[in-house]
Write a structure and sequence with these properties.
The complex is a heterodimer of chains A (about 160) and B (about 200). Chain A has 3 helices and 5 strands, in the order H-E-E-H-E-E-E-H. Chain A has about 160 residues and is α+β, with helices and mostly antiparallel strands. Chain B has a single domain, classed as 3-Layer(aba) Sandwich (Rossmann fold), CATH 3.40.50.300. Chain B is built from 5 helices and 8 strands; from the N terminus they run ββαβββαβαβαβα. The chains are: A alpha+beta (about 160), B alpha/beta (about 200).
């Protein structure tokens, strides 16, 4: 399992444009790029009262659970996951081994059209992640001057 | 593994509270959620629990916690628990995906010692299944329920659960009264920052 690369502004711009085009064409409400450990990487669109961080975590774990189910029936991969609601539905589409795209859309739109528009977006995003991985910006987080004793008690009790 | 987003200047880190059933993993997260001081500029996130009707963890609990900026990076710690019951072992493995640090919450009661040991073995196996080595991941032991009358002595807990070549930090706790909860959390976050520090120095 490779590691999700560090993204720089150019990567985010490319990803944001792909997700923006997905929302424009599909008329979906929200698109989230989620790392499969549960991290929200990028959000495009918004929806009232949506806690995107929690939504991303729940989405990734649900998706991972379905992948586990796939293994149990000797299916190598379930590449998407759809949940139909009364007002909103969600579609989760695999981007690569580390990321997935979570889309929230009104139920009057069809899952077929979502899949149709999500596929090219996922491809562009996947390619950009691959590009970022090849750039290997693993050395970009410079903690050289950090004294961990300064942050010994990051969290204080009230 | 931790996510570093240079564009948004964010560092995201995943900590999993692991341990046998009813050892106090969810209680730890509840106490952190209830008692943690958050900066005025930050809104405290919700604690999400996917539990059964009898309040046993079914999938996981999740609490995202934002810390002060470290060298300009907004640091977000995602705290998770796993279900303690053995029947949910597959779920535990799913939650462990991408873990950066582990808090092993052991139940100090004598009659829970076998469960503690079994659960630690499962942890090692689950990490192995994810191609992770337990020695590569910062771990803190929390000996919980020290307030109960039949709690085993600390030396015994260490002998049973923390008796490897390299001992990990351990804390006494009574999570129900928030004793030891923040000490444990601060130690695992400190160890994680140490790890990032040494990793970045190596590169």
């Amino acid at each position: 399992m490779g590691q999700f690369p560090q993204l720089i502004q150019e990567d985010i711009d490319t990803i944001d444009a792909a997700m923006g085009e997905l929302l424009d064409k599909s008329e979906a409400n929200v698109a989230l790029l989620v790392e499969k450990a549960g991290y929200l990487i990028h959000q495009r669109g918004s929806q009232e009262s949506l806690d995107a961080t929690t939504f991303a975590t729940l989405g990734s774990n649900a998706y991972n659970a379905v992948q586990f189910m796939a293994q149990l029936v000797n299916e190598s991969n379930f590449t998407s996951m759809y949940q139909q609601g009364e007002r909103y539905s969600t579609l989760m589409v695999n981007v690569d081994e580390n990321a997935l795209l979570v889309i929230v859309f009104p139920t009057h739109l069809t899952v077929g059209s979502m899949k149709y528009y999500a596929a090219p977006a996922a491809k562009i995003i996947g390619e950009r992640i691959q590009f970022a991985s090849a750039r290997a910006p693993g050395t970009g987080f410079d903690l050289a001057d950090l004294d961990p004793t300064d942050v010994a008690e990051l969290f204080q009790k009230k | 593994m931790a996510i570093i987003n240079q564009a948004t200047k964010e560092l995201q880190v995943k900590i999993v509270y692991y341990g046998p059933a009813k050892s106090g993993k969810t209680t730890n997260l509840e106490q952190v959620h209830k008692n943690v001081q958050v900066p005025e500029t930050t809104t405290k996130s919700k604690l999400t629990s996917l539990a059964t009707s009898s309040d046993r963890t079914l999938f996981f609990d999740f609490f995202p916690l934002e810390a002060v900026a470290i060298r300009g990076f907004k640091t977000k710690f995602a705290l998770f628990t796993v279900p303690g019951q053995v029947i949910y072992n597959a779920t535990r493995q799913i939650v462990l995906r991408g873990v950066d640090g582990i808090v092993f919450v052991a139940d100090s009661q004598y009659d829970k010692m076998e469960e503690n040991v079994e659960t630690f073995k499962h942890l090692e196996e689950n990490l192995k299944a994810l191609n992770l080595k337990i020695e590569d991941i910062p771990i803190v032991m929390q000996y919980n329920k020290r307030d109960l009358p039949d709690a085993a002595p600390l030396e015994y807990m260490d002998f049973v659960l923390n008796n490897r070549a390299v001992q990990v930090p351990s804390f006494e706790a009574a999570a129900a009264s928030c004793t030891g909860v923040f000490e444990t959390l601060n130690m695992i976050t400190r160890m994680l920052l140490h790890k990032f520090l040494s990793d970045s120095a190596r590169k």
